[in-house]
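Quick note —
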Amino acid sequence: MKHILSVLVENKPGVLSRVTGMVSRRGFNIDSLSVGPTEDPTMSRITIIVKADELAYEQLTKQLNKLVSVFKITDLTDTSAIERELALFKVNAAPDRRNEIIEIANVFRAKIVDVGRSSLTIEATGDESKLKGMEDLFRAYGIKEITRTGKIAMSRASKES
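Predicted structure written out below.
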């Protein structure tokens, strides 16, 4: 099963390395990893997506909690969480097909962020299925390059107690 962990940690050098090292030493492959500062500049939030059965996952969270630099772990797997990812697509764009590509970007509420002689670069934010749908449509035009961030996730305000 895929698990989404939101880990609140100290914003200090080496913390990300210790957290990911501990995860990989336990034999987990990290499917997605994203890290950034929070509203408190002394803290960072790491979003990790791993595949694990329940027993292995429980062991993983116990081990993470033992790290001094980890303050809080939130499991967003079975919650109504908001998940997003950012992708940049550099797509072949011959002048006669450019309008078609722009129209696809508009349908997905994406932005054209760079225009070249033979390509367009499109920025899109959304869930995995939205980005996959865009990728599938852009493949017909030829994709020169794709880069994606890891997922970020947060529990919904409507689920706060």
